[in-house]
Specification:
The structure holds two protein chains of two kinds. Chain A is mostly helical. Chain A contains eight helices and two strands, in the order ββαααααααα. The relative contact order of chain A is 0.06. By secondary structure, chain B is of the alpha+beta class. The chains are: A mainly alpha, B alpha+beta. At the A-B interface, β1, α3, α6 and α7 of A face α5, β6, β7, β8 and α7 of B.
């Protein structure tokens, strides 16, 4: 039996149930390794059958070698990853890309997971700093109000609280 | 520094798992994906950026308490054969084996934790345990993760969770999976139904060594697909529930087979024993399928209990890279078949032939090894 991607002898046979349907692919050693087929964690036969996977491989190579040309489409200011890159590889360039391409992400997430927002573990440090920055914001707006209404006693207290919180942040 | 040969000299705890009550579940595996904030993901990072993240991550990982005296290497420093052996042991991924400088692998001495640096994500951490131990594996790995998180600034978004290169891993970054040995369901033709049902509830099923419903060695892997919108605990407890259901289906199927058609089972196990004991050339497909039956024989009391562990160890040792490592040279497929058969014969030498296998006319004598096993 021949490999589905080249004419070599197929040695890896993969069958996967996707949406209740059985799908089968035959691959030679080379193509199987290249596509990471034998790694059970990172592979979806459906992607490959739909042709996404081959595109991925080509696109990823491109992205890495010469994809940094910029172009006119939307681009992540931190890592230079563009909308075109996203279209090609269906993966992101860095954490910040998720902010930049938020509107593109939403349709991608449809049907991919059980939900669209995170439930579960949160880094402890982040929880604190998240909480602290929220608290600081709140205190500052109260300080503004206090100053505006000329209640200087309150303002002084708030100012002390703010500087205390600020210090713990610097100290960390 | 721990040597490659030292790492491999001792079989991992999960390979020789003791006290496994659900005999259909061979191993449980947890993987967590994590990335650094403010650094390009490995696939997009330039070479210099990858070197930079490697500089940050490798010492942080090596400092972890369980990673004391771990096996730690930049992938460029490993030969392709060594990498292949690590793949066969499930310690690094196939994609990772293709990487060189700028990527690393840190593997705990007992091989129950392994951390890949600059794989698809900056960190891919894994814990493997024998039997159905997903919760324990997760708790242990999560502890490592928390320890790392004190030192590292993870890319995390309050609403999207841990940010990963591929959105299929967003949220928890968690992939939990178990490797199952299901010969009873295969022999009784129920495997298709069971796997489809598992698939319907959103879990992925793969024949571990390919070729579909008659997956090689009757080995199957079940894992979660969704990583976002549910907590780690929810994902894991659902998976554990489904897996133990599949395991009990397997148990029922075995009991039913022994009741309805003990001769067929005895014939298959007896033939498998005969081939493995006396073959001089055996390819990996044939070897895996016979090993599966031998393992079943161990579970059914036809062979002594420790046969199961022997089979699990052989499963690993007869794979291509392991054979070449054993032989100390590159091998042609024919040479591999010959050495594979040799290993089989020598390891099974002390395994007595299964006399008094149950037959239809001999229903009373159902536990032939009663004298030997307690």
């Amino acid at each position: 039996m021949k490999c589905d991607y080249c004419d070599k002898k197929a040695t890896v046979f993969l069958t996967q149930l996707a949406e209740g349907q059985m799908k089968k692919v035959c691959l030679c050693d080379g193509c199987a390794t290249e596509r990471g087929v034998t790694d059970p964690t990172g592979f979806s036969l459906a992607d490959m059958l739909l042709g996404n996977f081959q595109k991925d491989i080509g696109a990823k190579g491109n992205a890495q070698n010469k994809g940094r040309s910029g172009g006119s489409s939307k681009e992540c200011p931190e890592c230079g990853f563009t909308f075109d890159d996203l279209q090609k590889v269906r993966r992101f360039g860095c954490g910040n890309c998720y902010k930049v391409f938020a509107s593109e992400l939403n349709p991608m997430l449809l049907g991919m997971h059980k939900g669209v927002s995170h439930v579960g573990k949160v880094p402890e440090g982040l929880m604190e700093s998240h909480y602290r920055s929220q608290k600081l914001e709140e205190l500052r707006s109260r300080l503004d109000q206090a100053v505006a209404s000329e209640s200087y006693e309150d303002a002084a207290k708030l100012r002390d609280e703010i500087s205390e919180l600020d210090e713990t942040e610097v100290g960390k | 520094m721990m040597r490659f040969s030292t790492l491999l000299r001792h079989p991992a705890d999960w390979m020789i798992g003791t006290e496994v009550d659900q005999c259909a579940v061979i191993t449980s595996r947890i993987r967590l994906a994590r990335n650094l904030k403010g650094h390009s993901f490995p696939g997009w990072a330039k070479k210099s950026e990858r070197a930079e993240t490697m500089e940050i991550l490798r010492p942080a990982v090596e400092e972890l308490a369980p990673m004391k005296d771990a096996f730690s290497r930049e992938l460029g420093d490993l030969s392709s054969l060594q990498k292949q052996v690590l793949v066969e042991r499930h310690l690094i991924s196939r994609e990772h084996a293709a990487r060189n400088e700028g990527s690393g692998a840190v593997i705990e001495r007992r091989q129950s934790f392994s951390i890949m640096i600059n794989e698809e994500d900056h960190l891919r951490m894994q814990a493997i345990r024998p039997g159905l131990k997903l919760k324990e594996a997760y708790e242990a790995l999560s502890e490592l993760d928390s320890e790392l998180e004190e030192k590292l600034d993870y890319a995390f978004d309050p609403s999207l969770g841990y940010l990963t290169t591929c959105p299929t891993n967003l949220g928890t970054g968690l992939r939990a999976s178990a490797m199952l040995h299901l010969p009873g369901l295969v022999l009784s033709d129920q495997i298709g139904q069971v796997l489809q049902a598992v698939n319907k509830i959103g879990l992925a099923v793969r024949g571990l060594y390919g070729e579909g419903t008659e997956s090689l060695g009757n080995l199957y892997q079940i894992s979660n697909q969704s990583t976002l919108g549910e907590s780690e605990e929810t994902i894991i407890s659902r998976l554990e529930r489904v897996i133990s259901q599949v395991a009990s289906h397997e148990q029922n199927a075995r009991e039913k087979l022994m009741e309805d058609d003990p001769e067929m089972v005895a014939d298959k196990i007896g033939r498998a024993y005969g081939v493995l004991r006396h073959a001089y050339l055996i390819d990996s497909k044939e070897a895996l399928n016979h090993l599966s039956l031998l393992r079943l024989g161990g579970n059914l009391g036809i062979f002594p209990e420790e046969t199961v562990q022997l089979c699990d160890a052989l499963l690993m040792d007869i794979q291509q890279a392991h054979l070449q490592l054993h032989a100390g040279m590159k091998l042609s497929p024919e040479q591999r078949d010959s050495i594979r058969a040799e290993i089989m014969r020598s390891r099974l030498q002390s395994l007595d032939s299964p006399h008094n296998l149950p037959t239809k006319n001999d229903q009373t004598d159902r536990s032939p090894e009663d004298g030997n096993t307690k």
